[in-house]
Amino acid sequence: MREEVRNRIEEPGTSDDETVVVIQDGVALNAAGHRDQLSRQYGLLGLASMALTVDNAWVALGSSISVSILNGGPPGIIYGLLVAVFYYSLIGLSLSELASSVPTAGGVYHWATIAGGPRWGRILGFFTGWINFYGWIFALASLMQISSNVAVSMYAVYHLDTYVSQPYHVFIGYLLILWGSAFFIVFANKYAPHTQHVGTFFVIVGGIVTIIILATMPKRHATNHFVWSSFNENNATGWSGGVAFLLGVLNGAFTIGTPDSVTHMAEEMGHPRKDLPKAIMLQITLGFVYAFCFAVALSYAITDITALQGGFNTFPLTNIYVQATAGDNGVRNPGAAFGLLFIMLICTLTCCVGLTLTVSRTYWALARDNAVPLSALFGRVNERLSCPVWSTLFVCVLATGIGAIPLGSSTAFLAIAGSFVVLTTISYAIPFAANMLSGRKYFPKGPFHLGRAGYAVNGLAVLFIVLFDVLFCFLKRL
């Protein structure tokens, strides 16, 4: 019976030895100790595609610059990104090691359970799981808000003198995109990997096109001083220069801060131990390259920074696109700005599908381990659709409620984005710290292992997480 089960699971394109931990009563169990219920339809290409589209680094940077545009202007954006990439690389290395050892859809909360040992594991795992889940819910809400803002801006660029965007306009778009993503995942889940391939194409090719246009189309560019050295003149936060700069790192953290997204797809992969570390670090590396080039090109395209402060719908990127594509004597070129926004819209829509998948799988993994109310319902998988339908719908209902918050607050996006970064990084720090305190003895070595450098990498990751999470809580005073 054991050989029959193993042969069935190891059909080409489905699995291999690394996904099967033990055979119990004739049933093959995965690394989480559960029977496989989801199709293992993701290879390295599909996983890397999802990582890049969920991260959407250059899009995330451009659409969230309202966080840092007053924290030193372009220098704050560029140098803040460099700092964020440095400490997220430490996080990525630490996550890669754990994912290579125990690849499960639960991700950090399973790892916290293991690292905490018999005494503290269940408690740490419970809180880590919920913290991580709510972090990703805020990420989903941020993304839907960005996507809707882009769609509204595509209309606004043709009516800048007459159209006044209202919060409910964005909320309507938010609902359409959110529930459209949900129904696609429920009824067309087998096509989800293809959407990520499309998203990867637009993230990579669309990013190159956007960077080239921003670099070449403006009739005049900002000065080198403005882009690289104008931090103090553009610090409008009221904080001293050093503190303002560190607060502005939130923009970079939001840009690159999705390293654990693909870990929640571990049970839908054929070779998770080998492919997860590659996808995590590929996302951080390529995300940084694109985000940095985009940030530099975008900064040189700014000709009037005062127009970005409180622009229509507090979405300053649209104003930058309008400035960059303007013709001689400042004559607007709405068609060009519309085209740049259209590229961004496609990138965000494919990202919406990938991120909804990530969050729904996170909640499903919690329910499967009886960590949520009505676990029997939310832990159920429709094997015909290969989708945890009830978990997907619940996630979207919760995201709908969060999406309504900006209807009553113009600064809600800042709070939502900050909550995503703070909560997800806390959920990373818990298993990292527990792993160090337990002597790093509970995790078997996987294909990717940090070896003697593990303590240093894990320790620095936790140190930076604590430092920046405390600082980001002060953003409400901006």
Superfamily (CATH H level) name of the largest domain: Amino acid/polyamine transporter I
> What's the domain count?
2
Main sheet: strands, sense, barrel: 2 strands, antiparallel
Record field, number of beta strands: 2
Mean pLDDT: 84
Strand order of the largest sheet: 1-2
- CATH-assigned fold name of the largest domain: Amino acid/polyamine transporter I
Element-level helix/strand string: HEEHHHHHHHHHHHHHHHH
Highest-level CATH class of the largest domain: Mainly Alpha
For the record, the CATH architecture of the largest domain stands as Up-down Bundle
Proportion of residues in helical segments: 55-70%
Question: How far apart are the first and last residues' alpha carbons, in Å?
Answer: 64 Å
Low-confidence stretches: 1-34
* Rough outline: globular
Class derived from helix and strand content: mainly alpha
Number of DSSP helical runs: 17
Oligomer: single chain
Proportion in β-strands = under 5%
Q: Radius of gyration from the CA trace?
A: 22 Å
Characteristic key phrases:
single chain, about 475 residues, mainly alpha, Amino acid/polyamine transporter I, 2 domains, two-stranded antiparallel sheet, 17 helices, about 65% helix, transmembrane
